[in-house]
Write a structure and sequence with these properties.
By secondary structure, the chain is of the alpha+beta class. Helices cover about 15% and strands about 40% of the residues. β2 and β3 form a beta hairpin.
């Protein structure tokens, strides 16, 4: 609900959609119950429809400029890190996303983030 209040739903074409995604939002574990959409304007991130509040079923669109990757997944086959960790900077809100959805968010955040000064 906090995300939906701050980042209302936006109608846009979604480039990639991932269903049954696992991860953590705050201290709550979401096992195969998250939905992730990668759009041009932002990240569409919410519990799948049966787990959303009854009166607020929209999916927030978090602008890419608000998201920072704080831990990338390991590239090794048996890597210890299987989750991507992110922070919504304006809210000091952290979440993790497992698997292909996490890697897709990592790529999008990296593509949009300005290059570090040399």
């Amino acid at each position: 609900m906090m995300l939906l209040t701050r980042f209302p739903p936006i109608e846009e074409a979604i480039d990639d959609t991932y269903l049954f995604v696992s991860g953590w939002t705050g201290s709550v574990r979401s096992k195969n119950s998250m939905q992730v959409g990668i759009g041009v304007l932002g990240l569409h991130f919410a519990p799948m429809w049966p787990f959303r509040p009854i009166l607020s079923r929209g999916i927030p669109c978090i602008p890419w400029r608000e998201i920072r990757c704080i831990q990338a997944q390991s590239d090794r086959v048996r890597g210890l890190v299987r989750d991507s960790a992110f922070e919504i900077t304006s809210l000091d809100y952290r979440f993790t996303v497992r698997g292909a959805a996490g890697r897709a968010i990592e790529r999008k955040v990296a593509a949009i983030s300005p290059a570090p000064p040399s």
